[in-house]
């Protein structure tokens, strides 16, 4: 029976990263996968993570199961981190949460709950969106509609078009929004635009589902969550999937959380009980290690301060790289790349054609996706000139 299954091609992004690794050119530039790299090209372990991990190793006396929602310190810390410690809904018990295997696991649990409430619900996704959204939510049985979002001409959000498309979203529909640092385009909504989305959700009755995988890597922890907080202050319900992969560097630990804003405390409690049952049938229990580390960091004031400092310097570095890239490209091309500085987070579409992206890797060992999406955090002082010169050559 199993012989009928054919070998599948590699994932397009991971496949390109593998091609970059296999490239023997010592001056190659790999801007494919969305992980933060430091100046030396290494994806570092946060010091706060190392310290929290050390404490846990010292203290740990058991590997018995934790509660199905994961460690309490993690849940408490993540609710405050995402919604803000002073959020009235936190005080009113309207926010519940469950630890999940990474942001992907958190999205999956959110999708399970949506499908339990409205089987086959319509989910509105941005065009473009992170490609994994479709198989991840679609495999639960959800259906998709797209709303226009990124405008390649202006390199920004086409909010008029987004609003026009979302006029068709109704009660029972879900609108999936990137909380910050849109992947793949880096173009985010302004707060005034988030407020318009809140108006539309209020009038039309759709439920927002926020994917926030880069909180703290756009502007700051609070500024990056301001849009979703604005929605949560005005709307009766929403779901948030948050990840600690990027902002704590816990990629391989699989650390995420699904947060529910319910109509009242009873509803919030019902939602998380449903989520625990959904998790039970998919993978039973969330992984503990990363959630224990993140929980320890968030409950310990010194570790929190250390972590926030490290994260802020990563964010500053990414924004500095954006500035340097704009300046570098301005020197060698006559195209306007200033949009790169207006975007947030790790990603940007350079606005090159597929042929140019292919020529960059085949002729210059500069690896980016065919869409010309780059991971800005993969740039450093040692490779920026090669990148800039190569882009100038293919233009
Ligand atoms: C938009 C978006 N959402 C969610 C995730 C989830 O990541 P993870 O499951 O590794 O936490 C990612 C990771 O790349 C992402 O880019």
Assign the structural class, choosing from mainly alpha, mainly beta, alpha/beta, alpha+beta, or little secondary structure: alpha/beta
The multimeric state of the shown protein is single chain
- Give the helices and strands as they follow along the chain: HEHHHEHEHEEEHEHEHEEHHHHEHEEH
Radius of gyration: 21 Å
Structural shape: globular
Q: How many structural domains does the protein architecture include?
A: 2
Please report the number of helical segments. 15
β-sheet strand percentage: 5-15%
Estimate percent helicity.
Answer: 40-55%
What molecules are bound to this protein? pyridoxal-5'-phosphate
CATH arch. level architecture of the largest domain: 3-Layer(aba) Sandwich
Rounded to the nearest angstrom, the distance between the terminal CA atoms is 51 Å
User: The CATH topology of the largest domain, please?
Assistant: Aspartate Aminotransferase, domain 2
- What is the class of the largest domain in the CATH system? Alpha Beta
How would a crystallographer describe the biggest sheet?
7 strands, mixed
Query: Strand order, biggest sheet?
Result: 2-10-9-8-7-3-4
What are the segments in which pLDDT stays under 50 over at least 5 consecutive residues? none
DSSP strand tally: 13
What is the mean predicted local confidence, pLDDT? 97
Protein name: Aminotransferase
Keywords: Aminotransferase, Pyridoxal phosphate, Transferase
Family: Belongs to the class-I pyridoxal-phosphate-dependent aminotransferase family.
Domain Aminotransferase class I/classII large: 27-391
């Amino acid at each position: 029976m199993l012989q009928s299954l054919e070998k599948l091609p590699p994932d397009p992004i991971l496949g390109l990263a593998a091609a970059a690794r296999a490239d023997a050119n010592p001056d190659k530039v790999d801007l494919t996968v969305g992980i933060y790299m430091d100046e030396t090209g290494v994806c570092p372990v946060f010091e706060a993570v190392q310290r929290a991990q050390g404490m846990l190793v010292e203290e740990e006396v058991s590997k018995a199961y934790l509660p199905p929602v994961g460690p309490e310190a993690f849940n408490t810390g993540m609710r405050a981190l995402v919604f803000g410690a002073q959020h009235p809904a936190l005080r009113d018990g309207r926010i519940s949460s469950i630890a999940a295997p990474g942001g992907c696991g958190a999205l999956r649990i959110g999708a399970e709950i949506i499908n339990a409430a409205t089987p086959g619900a319509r989910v509105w996704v941005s065009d473009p969106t992170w490609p994994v959204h479709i198989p991840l939510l679609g495999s639960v049985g959800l259906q998709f509609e797209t709303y226009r979002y990124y405008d390649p001409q202006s390199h920004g959000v086409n909010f008029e078009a987004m609003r026009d498309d979302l006029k068709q979203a109704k009660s029972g529909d879900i609108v999936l929004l990137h909380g910050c640092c849109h992947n793949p385009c880096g173009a985010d909504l302004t707060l005034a635009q988030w407020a318009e989305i809140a108006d539309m959700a209020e009038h039309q009755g759709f439920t927002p589902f926020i994917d926030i995988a880069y909180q703290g890597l756009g502007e700051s922890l609070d500024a990056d969550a301001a849009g979703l907080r604005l929605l949560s202050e005005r709307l009766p319900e929403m779901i948030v999937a948050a990840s600690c992969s990027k902002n704590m560097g816990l990629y391989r630990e699989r650390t995420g959380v699904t947060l529910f804003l319910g109509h009242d405390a009873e509803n919030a409690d019902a939602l998380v009980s449903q989520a625990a049952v959904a998790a039970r049938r998919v993978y039973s229990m969330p992984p503990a290690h990363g959630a224990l580390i993140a929980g320890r960091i968030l409950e310990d004031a010194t570790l929190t301060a250390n972590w926030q400092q490290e994260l802020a310097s990563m964010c500053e570095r990414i924004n500095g790289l954006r500035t340097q890239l704009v300046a570098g490209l301005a020197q060698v091309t006559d195209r306007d790349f200033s949009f790169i500085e207006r975007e947030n987070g790790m990603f940007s579409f350079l606005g090159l054609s597929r042929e140019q992206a292919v020529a960059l890797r085949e002729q210059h060992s500069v690896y980016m996706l065919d869409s010309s999406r780059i991971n800005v955090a993969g740039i450093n002082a040692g490779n920026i000139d090669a990148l800039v010169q190569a882009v100038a050559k293919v233009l």
